[in-house]
Amino acid sequence: MKLPPLLLGAALAFWGWRSGNYAAAAALALLAEAPHVVRTRFEFRPADLARIADLCALVFVGLVVWLFASLEEPRTQRAVLTSLLWLPAVLMPVLAAQRFSATERIPLSALFRYLRKARARDPSIPDPPVDLSAVYFAICLLAAGIPNQRDALFYGGVVLLVAWAMAPLRARHSPIAAWLGVVCLAAATGYAAQLGLARLQSALDDWVSDWFVAGMAADPYRSTTDLGSVGRLKLLDAIVLRVYAAEPDAARLKLLHRASFTSLNGTTWLARYAPMAPLEAEPDGTSWRLAAGAPARSARIVTRLEHGKALLALPPGTLRVSSLPALAVRRNAFGATQVELGGGEWSPYVAETGSEIVDYAAPRAEDTALPDSERSEFEPLAAQLGLKGLAQAEILRRTREHFATFAYSTYREAPVAPGSSALGDFLRRSKSGHCEYFAAATTLLLRAAGIPARYATGFAMHEYSELEGAYVVRARHAHAWTRAHVDGRWMDVDTTPPSWFEAEESLAPAWQGLADFLRWAGFRWSQRGAIEGGVAWYAAAAALLALFAWRFSRARRAARKASPAAPAARSFPGADSEFYAVERALTRRGISPAALDGAARSSFERVLRLHRRYRFDPQGLGSAEREELRSDCLALARALD
Description:
This protein is α+β, with helices and mostly antiparallel strands. Helices cover 46% and strands 15% of the residues. α1 (7-19) runs antiparallel to α2 (22-33) and α19 packs across α20 (623-640).
């Protein structure tokens, strides 16, 4: 497409007007229109034109790097937009070389290095000469919109310039008035459409933002559950926490608490009579004492912020939070800790923990209260299990065993039947649900048996990333469990089947590995801090980068080295338990543990207790008990087969 004379100059003047770069626009416009006055032409070789195009590409890369290093936050957005703003200036050498060449065209291979390599192998590959004027014209219009002043004047200028460019294509038999009418109609329709799209984008942004924050944000006074919801829960893969801890300490950090609640109202848990109170920082200004005591271990955690604030995820028994440069820290009696940091996307802190849950409100009357809507479900169940009058440890054991026969699921195919609550349906019919079902049911069942209990929320830490050298916690690892007051102390009780993590992992998208690499790269970039240096430093860095890129582009591809051996799979306590052979045998027969009876049921319960101790108890099993687990599991597996 051949552009009318002076159109490129007008487009550059429009760019200069909208961006405020009047002097640069005037110089570029004169250079772009000079070939109409200056008749001198040059015989450029294809290699010369290729070098000019490569030089423009390197200048653009250097500009992007310099902007990333020198601009203030938000660096990424501002660097990208500013580099695009100056694209007409960066590409002017290529346009000038084309317009001052004898053919007023440029070979396509000059713009694409891969085409040059392909033609070196096969000279018969076509290499058509192209005119970049129309592309450059479009780039000028794009760059003029970068300042984001898309008012009526901007739209009118774009319409006039595009109409000017299209005028030579008008059919000569078409009346000019009809052509102008069609152009005006198209412009009016386009303007109305872009206004509608802008409104639609705003609505979608609001919806996506609300939905995303709703999946991550935590309210220390209200937790709205998905009890009774039909369909599959939305599971987000976004990483919200990174936990750096020594392997021996990691086993004690499986549950990271953010908030606790005492009262169930419908499907919403509430925390009443627990106002937030400000904490005083220690003399260093970055440490905050939560409870008295000497910490026995620590973990460094990096949390994603929400508008500069966060509700901290803390291991059980956290006594002190350090390395946290917060503007303010507030905490309530149920262990919820809010921090305000002012800005940024991520913030690190160190959680120093002891052996017990402390600085946590003593049991209250509401910790043993049952909602009227659920009383008819849980009191009969407590009686059926014979929990009344038992020692608290025995009540806890029977409660765990009862829910061990239930299954984990994030999907519900039908609504709750009329006359039943979501928890009642879970207890009597489906016996399957996600963590909110197990946590709510366990909390209320313990209360029905006389044990004070609260509904706790936070995250479960399971996934170790070899790439990051840390445990990563995703939005879909949000978890709910019970905090029960047993034998004079608070303890975490999680009855959700351990298979819940594997069930959710199986739903991860195929591209999660690539997405995690990009998340890690973005996280590392956000943690680098500001780059200090003068203009000379930036110029030297850009020159070195340009030289490296140039040499790299000319170098031959090196022979691939042998791939390093894959790292050994990360082991976990109890991975070699023979109990998994029993699970496989049950699966092959298509039965659940609840279907066993007599000696088989007794044997299953015995090996299950041993397996749980071997899997989760830090003390593990003695040699005799370990041999008993092995022999009994193998014997039971053979009997089931």
